[in-house]
Amino acid sequence: MSPNEDRRLTEAFGAFDPSPERVAGIAERVFEARPAALPVPSLGALAREWQALLAARPAQNGVLVAAAATLLLVASPLALLPLAFLS
Amino acid sequence: MSVLFLLFALLARGPLGESPEPPPDEAKIREAIEAARQGDRAALAHLYGWHVTRVFRALRPSCRNDADAEDLTQETFVKAFSSLDRYEPRPDARFVSWLLAIALNTARKSARRLSRVVPTEPESIAREMEESGDAEDAGTALELARLRDALLAALADLGDRERFIVCLRYGGELDVTEVAELTGASQANVRKICERQRKRILAWLAARGISPGSEPTRGATA
């Protein structure tokens, strides 16, 4: 086989490369539309993912903290409700 | 758990949306497989990112359009990730060849395969690609669209078996041994088909003033 012609035809197939938007679109469908079909993450794996994500994307840590704070603010008064009934 | 997953998906959107990175060596891929089997979704995302382009490239010529190729690519990855526990690494077979075997079976079972040339209009494809930011300018977009169009037409002339062989070899970038194993053809036959079709396709492209390899043709186009 001619390595040069092999390379040229392989490069020609690059014309079919999916765009980043298409890659992200398929990923969404693979990872989000059918999460039940995917392996269930262990707590340790989940913790490692978060650790890696927080280290790799410090710019989004603010979003994460804000989301966690909002959850706490919403959850705290709700947690006090049963106490109000008990007293 | 679902809130955690949604937040993870939000944070993971960036890496998954970027241009896929080239696959690393097989040892690293096997590490990622092992981690994914333990439930590490980041490892799954890496496996996806390393292989999605080759799966899409190999499937696209056997589909009517990009949307069908997208569906088959999605099916391939969902099936592969669902049966990752059954994947048995072998010293003589790469993970990508297992993945493309699933892609091939998915395509064979699908009724969305081409049986003849799909009419496309390079100018309108180029316009769409330029508008969506997929190509830097109209000239590049038109050139890529012409290449896609001519390549699809050349591949649509082939029977299913030969088209799969050529697509696995040049789109999936498998070697002759891997293609032979996947398709059940002998290595000599795969070599013969690839040589004949490679010459025919390059001549077909040359007759249309297209010479791949002389300029960069890789890029996000579909």
**Helix count of chain B?**
10
What is the 3D shape of chain B?
Answer: globular
Characterize the main sheet of chain B.
Answer: none
Q: Measure the end-to-end span of chain B.
A: 35 Å
Can you tag this structure with a few keywords?
heterodimer, A: 87 residues, mainly alpha, rod-shaped, B: mainly alpha, 10 helices, 67% helix, disordered N terminus
Written account of the structure:
The complex is a heterodimer of chains A (87) and B (222). By secondary structure, chain A is mostly helical. Chain A has helices at residues 3-12, 20-33, 43-56, 61-86. The radius of gyration of chain A is 24 Å and the shape is rod-shaped. The relative contact order of chain A is 0.04. Chain B has helices at residues 2-17, 26-37, 41-59, 66-82, 95-109, 122-131, 138-156, 160-171, 176-183, 187-207. The relative contact order of chain B is 0.10. Chains A and B meet through helix 1, helix 2, helix 3 and helix 4 of A and helix 1, helix 2, helix 3, helix 4 and helix 7 of B.
Secondary structure elements and pairings:
The complex is a heterodimer of chains A (87) and B (222).
Chain A: H1 3-12, H2 20-33, H3 43-56, H4 61-86
Chain B: H1 2-17, H2 26-37, H3 41-59, H4 66-82, H5 95-109, H6 122-131, H7 138-156, H8 160-171, H9 176-183, H10 187-207
Summarize this entry quickly.
Chain A has 87 residues and is mainly α. Helices cover 74% and strands 0% of the residues of chain A.
